[in-house]
Amino acid sequence: MLYPRESETRELKDLSGVWSFRTDPEGAGMDGRWYESGLEPPTIEMPVPSSYNDITQDASIRDLVGTVWYEREFFVPRTWSGRRVVLRFGSATHHAVVWVNGLEVVRHRGGFLPFEADVGDALSFGGRNRVTVAVNNELDWTTLPTGEIRTHNDPMHPPGFRTQEIHFDFFNYAGLHRPVKLIAMPETFIEDVTVLTDIEGDDGVVRYDVTIGGGEADVHVRLLDADGYEVASASGSDDQLRVEDANLWRPGRGYLYTLEVRAVANGDVEDIYRLPVGIRTVEVEGNRFLINGKPFYFRGFGKHEDADIRGRGYDDAIVCKDFNLLEWIGANSFRTSHYPYAEEILQMADRRGVVVIAEAPAVGMNFFDPRSKVFSDERVGSATLEHHLDVMREMIARDKNHPSVVMWSVANEPAATEDGAEKYFEPVAAEARRLDPTRPVTAVVMPGFGDCRIGQLFDVVCVNSYCSWYSDYGHLELIDMQLTHELRGWHDKYNKPIIVTEYGADSVAGLHQDPPMMFSEEYQCEFLRQYHAVFDRLDFVIGEHVWNFADFMTKQGVKRVVGNRKGVFTRGRQPKSAAHLLRQRWTSRSDD
Hints:
By secondary structure, this protein is α/β, with parallel strands linked by helices. It folds into three domains: 11-137 and 172-185, Jelly Rolls, CATH 2.60.120.260; 189-277, Immunoglobulin-like (Sandwich); 282-587, TIM Barrel, CATH 3.20.20. It has nine helices and 30 strands. Strand 24, helix 4 and strand 25 (355-359) form a beta-alpha-beta unit.
């Protein structure tokens, strides 16, 4: 699915803004056919994109389990008549049904990837139109992330009282989190473009494959450099372009060419689409991760799409601030923990030369109950696997052309020690490689190399580690021994390079204790120092991603004080002491 871009043949109308909004906790809207004549009061105003949870002062909206409705009116120019018109949602968390002028146009399952529909037959060209969306935030064992809906039928709760049980540590924000756009394009159109790049000596090679939809057309392509000069051209729906003395995309320098694709029928240009292209290669060789044939060491973070008020809603200001902080601190990479981020974030990573591990929303596949199995017919079984494979297809189709994306992560912290884990993840890893044989594949696991059943399926071992935080509380002196044992164990078992994709400690900004105590800024700093000393001794460790970039919201519980405080920046993006420690470490390194 191509990202919506304007061109000589394509027009965009952004439907982001303030929509009408109504909650539907009892699920009455479908039976009541609310989509037919427009939402009736009581409605409130709701910004799109944003999470709806923190916009009001109403706790019942913040904690709602069930369905909400969005609606807005818009005009379509009469000049768009006779063209293909597509309505595109960047995401809807987690399930959506969309109507245009009362006609259902699309359904989508999964909260972090785009979906679209050809809505030309439902529109009034040159007139007023209405789009209505029902968004449901419920999670169960067949969704990604996984979860459980618990209905309480006991004397201590109202009849039918429901709660959303989740097995992951971030807030289940919901709503229309990313831009909603209307795109007009020719009836014969460029449907998809796939680009693969290689390096041969000083030359770059760009292999392309173009799919035409809606009719037949000849394909002509040009590759333009950053200054707009043509450096190569070809004709045909699939071919390769050679760029002499190519400027490579590399960490810290996001050089981008532009692939200009033209669909031509009977001598007339039907459609034009331009795709940014970064020429680079990625591979794993022994204990090294190579970008353009050179060893790369991951320095950076696990992150979240999370900020005050807007929740997980896309915000240009927040994204720009985050990338400026990544540059300031000396980071060169991040993981999209624990779901695909907005496409605009990956586009900025492409431009900035920031390396990304792209992760599927397969989080919560654990239970922490030795009496119960996660990988079973009752929980994560065949229905979950079918959806997981669909999500991998959607994610790779969306993100395959981003040079910043160097590896696919299929899951975070699954119950990898269970007997059923290998049977479940084997087809997921195989499907990722089938869809994209050019990038390594991984899954992020918890400590426990001795009983892990899935490490052999992947190219890189990514492990999360919290010595002296979730165990041996406060005993920083044990980190060296325990972490060294764990990392050597992983490497001895699988003989693969290791990235520590999470390590960190909560700290409350402004809380100081010396000698260090848990939750103080001093403890967070000393925790990081101890980990770094181990990393620097082990040559098979190829990366360090601190958990987390910034404090973020979680569900309420006695272990969290208004969210997770493991950020080295506050939720308002102010640096804690740990940020200065990392900046000193990372800006002094020149290994990439």
